[in-house]
Amino acid sequence: MDTITTATKMNSEEIFNLMKQFITEVIGEEFVEEMDITPESSFTKDLEMDSIEIVSFSEKIKAHFGDQIDFTGWLSEMDLDQLINLNLGMIISYIETCQS
Amino acid sequence: MPILKINDREVHIQELNKAAAETVILVHGMFSNLSVYYFSIAPILATQFHVVLYDLKSHGMSEKTLHGYDLNSMTDDLLALMEALNLKKVHLGGYSFGGLIALKMATRFPERIKKLAVIEAPDPSDEKARGIIDEYSREFLEHYVENFTDTTKVKMGKRQMEKNHRMYEYLFYQTSIKQDMINEQDFFGAGGLTRVPHETFLLYGWFSNCLDAGKLLNKKIKNSRLLAIEGDHNIPIQHPQQVADELLIFFKQP
């Protein structure tokens, strides 16, 4: 069972590094090594994450930030095109907004 | 990651709005996983209900297992999940193969179900519906992916292709899933469905090759209503909002 960590306010670089860590945990280091992950990387096209991997990634965000952010709620408001085009930068901005 | 030990295997579950008074359990289809509900349908139902999603054995992030894909074993697993979560009576919904599991649950443990929603359950006696299991090959997967791409607009990359290929190979050639499904071909004809007492909602796509199965269920289940909406077998992916809204209205009605 994941534990909920109360996060202190993070800047965008720290959030980016945390997201990279979560992605590595979900898809495995051997695949991440071959990728150039940037804030522009999209989940489905660039990172090739499927929906169950995005569930796993969402769980990690929830476990880390707790009630501070409603990541699944935010995703649920997107239509299919928005989900397909979702990139790391958008998540970083969303988390920053929730922290402010 | 929430993992429960059910019938000696690890099962990945997700729960939303645990504080709600009533529970809805949603069962996904074959070769799929709980994410078919997680991002869009479950959050809408969770505005009113405690929602429980789980990955079937060897699917998503649940443990792999070689045997037990028949509807009795699948419903034993679901009952054990309800016991583990201390759920006495729930609303139950299932999509595709998950719809068959939901129907079987209603015939075996009617007292544990409040209302029943069946989305795009195929008739197991229909050879076309079972054909997917007989025809698997790498070419089949590539063809499937091309069609899948048409409906979801996502091009599957190399890693995903390999991952899916491994899952299909495992399920088709190593587990008993193929034979277990063939053994279920009399499920619609066996008579049990005519005794389903629950208020039942049958949701199908207008252009689905499973729509006839929905019509047949509508005849067999006395207290059932059939609704066909725009789309084909993939309606939860094509129209998640509409599917969720219809389910919410159905489960909410007193």
Give your account of this protein's structure.
- The complex is a heterodimer of chains A (100) and B (254).
- Chain A has 100 residues and is an all-alpha fold.
- Chain A has a single domain, classed as Non-ribosomal Peptide Synthetase Peptidyl Carrier Protein, Chain A (Orthogonal Bundle), CATH 1.10.1200.
- Helix content of chain A is 58%, strand content 0%.
- Chain B has a single domain, classed as Alpha/Beta hydrolase fold, catalytic domain (Rossmann fold, 3-Layer(aba) Sandwich).
- The model of chain B has no long low-confidence stretch (mean pLDDT 90).
- In chain B, strand 7, helix 9 and strand 8 form a beta-alpha-beta unit.
- The longest helix of chain B is centred in the middle third of the chain and has 17 residues.
- In chain B, helix 3 packs across helix 4 and helix 6 packs across helix 7.
- Chain B has 254 residues and is an alpha/beta fold.
- At the A-B interface, helix 3, helix 4 and helix 5 of A face helix 1 and helix 7 of B.
- Chain A: InterPro entries: ACP-like_sf.
- Chain A: It comes from Pedobacter rhizosphaerae.
Oligomer: heterodimer
Percent of residues in β-strands of chain B: 15-25%
Beta strand count of chain B: 8
Distance between the termini of chain A: 29 Å
The neighbouring-strand order within the major sheet of chain B is: 1-2-4-3-5-6-7-8
Count of helical stretches of chain B: 11
Low-confidence stretches of chain A: none
Q: What fraction of residues of chain A sit in β-strands?
A: under 5%
Largest sheet of chain A: none
Range of helix content of chain B? 40-55%
Protein name (chain A): Acyl carrier protein
Organism (chain A): Pedobacter rhizosphaerae
Protein name (chain B): Pimeloyl-ACP methyl ester carboxylesterase
InterPro entries (chain B): AB_hydrolase, AB_hydrolase_1, AB_hydrolase_fold
